[in-house]
Write a structure and sequence with these properties.
Number of domains: 2
CATH superfamily of the largest domain: FAD/NAD(P)-binding domain
Strand content: 15-25%
CATH topology of the largest domain: FAD/NAD(P)-binding domain
CATH class of the largest domain: Alpha Beta
Radius of gyration: 24 Å
Mean pLDDT: 92
Largest sheet: 9 strands, mixed
Low-confidence stretches: none
Oligomer: single chain
Helix content: 25-40%
């Protein structure tokens, strides 16, 4: 049976970063990446809809070890995919990737300090097995095969084309077509301005508004620094600056929600003009950062609306008709193409099942350790980035922690590390794994996720600055972690 010291599940942004850190900091450890699809890149290879881009700047979404040198800080999907591929190529990571390998189940044996993985290969119903000492879950947070289905009423009546952005048809022709995008999140706000170049008209149909913030796609600060400093220095300085900016914006919104709301809505009024109904279409019922803000780079959404080539409608769908959508207000919205940009379907641990010494693990009954590990589950880390900052900031922190843990195990001749909630904290108050974030795509799966406690390290703080300190705590003095070796007796 094939064996590696570490098996990474997923060859997307997190998985490629994890592989780099292992190569750099744990060169004595063998590793393998299992990727269920036939290409690396994860999200940035899967999504191919018009205008696909990040809503985080690449100086924080990029890796800590690889400077982003393009002028555009708000990058499109192909540019991000190229960056991830370059990282893999430059560090000889591709030779460690097995494509078409999907993790189905994982079983831990304490007597051997070993994970046994059941893996399904493409075009093969039989499962193959591999073993590893440490399992590193970088499979992302959503279902690649099944997006969220909002159950549109009477959708079968529609004679036009219904598309989900997750499965964008390569041959979709929207030239001179009437397009309706259902949704109000980042995907919808990206699609609207990107499709106006060809479509006859584009409408974004939303049940309720989302907060938006606009900024230039090019970062003058970063581009200026690169002219006078080495690229790595300029990148590091910009990364610190932008991280601080994200943190200040989030804290301001939490401390002064009314003021932040007035500021954000005021900026929208400036962009759309005094005659536009901002109260209806761009004023959410919640406070800023109760859900993630949507980015509008270079005012592209506002420019599309102001030009008349696109509009926003805030209403509920009564039913689909042969030629479009009937709204609750009675308005008939004609469409040739309807795009369901209604969100993702989250997936716990890539959809795999887990057992520890023959006992099935229900993650909903476990407690998170630093948002990295799960109580009573040994030698496994799962990556989930920030919801209020760039994903990779947390993925990098986690990768560094994993390498320190592996090196600590080598130096102490231990083979197992497991977080154990002490008896005194068994009854501590708990809350959702992602707390105080009522976005629908999160709330739909919170009951499946581990819980978090009310004190470190049994928390998932989603706070970059706090976690830099929390993750750096010396492993030898961390009483929550239990290290042990396989007994020869």
């Amino acid at each position: 049976m094939e064996h590696r010291d570490v098996i990474i599940v997923g060859a997307g942004l997190s998985g490629i970063g994890a592989a780099y850190h292992l190569t750099d900091k744990c060169p004595d450890r063998s590793y393998l990446l299992l990727e269920s699809r036939q290409a690396l890149g994860g999200t940035w290879d899967l999504f191919r809809y018009p205008g696909i881009r990040s809503d985080s700047d690449m100086h924080t979404l990029g890796y800590s070890f690889k400077p982003w040198e393009s002028k555009k800080a708000i990058a499109d999907g192909p540019a991000i995919l190229k960056y991830v591929r370059e990282t893999a190529t430059e560090n000889n990571i591709e030779q460690h990737i097995r494509y078409g390998h999907r993790l189905i189940s994982a079983s831990w044996c304490s007597k051997q300090s070993l994970w046994t993985l059941d893996i399904r290969q493409d075009n093969n119903d039989a499962l193959v097995q591999m073993t590893c000492n440490f399992l590193y879950m970088c499979s992302g947070y959503y279902n690649y095969d099944q997006p969220h289905d909002p159950q549109f009423p009477e959708v079968e009546s529609f004679k036009g084309t219904l598309v989900h952005p997750q499965f964008w048809p390569e041959d979709l022709d929207y030239q001179d077509k009437r397009v309706v995008i259902v949704g109000s999140g980042a995907t919808a706000m990206t699609l609207l301005p990107a499709m106006t170049d060809k479509a006859k008209h584009v409408t974004m149909l939303q049940r309720s508004p989302t907060y938006v913030v606009t900024r230039p796609s090019e970062d003058w600060f970063a581009n200026g620094l690169r002219k006078i400093l080495p690229a790595s220095w300029a990148y590091a300085i910009t990364r610190v600056r932008n991280t601080l900016f994200q943190e200040v914006l989030f804290k301001q919104a939490q401390a002064f929600p009314e003021t932040t709301k007035r500021f954000l809505i005021g900026q929208v009024r400036k962009k759309l003009g005094k005659d536009y109904d901002v109260d209806t279409h761009f004023t959410p019922r919640y406070f800023p950062w109760d859900q993630r803000l949507c980015l509008v780079p270079d005012d592209d959404l506002f420019n599309a609306v102001n030009s008349g080539s696109a509009n926003v409608i805030t209403d509920h769908i009564k039913r689909f008709t042969e030629n479009g959508i009937e709204l609750e207000t009675g308005e008939q919205l004609e469409a040739d193409i309807v795009i369901s940009a209604t969100g993702l379907r989250l997936l716990v641990m890539g959809g795999a099942t887990f057992t520890v010494d023959g006992e099935a693990i229900d993650f909903a009954n476990q407690t998170t350790y630093k948002g990295l590990m799960v109580s009573d589950v040994p030698n496994m880390v799962s990556i989930f980035g920030y919801i209020n900052a760039s994903w990779t900031l947390r993925a990098d922190l986690a990768a560094e922690w994993v390498c320190r843990a592996l090196n600590h195990m080598s130096s102490t001749q231990t083979t197992k590390v497991v977080p154990v909630v002490p008896e005194a904290l068994k009854d501590m108050p708990t809350k959702d794994w992602i707390a105080d974030f009522p976005a629908g795509y999160m709330q739909r799966s919170m009951h499946l996720q581990p819980r978090q406690g009310d004190q470190a390290p049994w928390v998932n703080s989603q706070n970059f600055r706090k976690e830099r300190t929390l993750f750096a705590k010396p492993l030898a003095s961390d009483k929550a972690l239990h290290f042990s070796a396989v007994s020869n007796g």
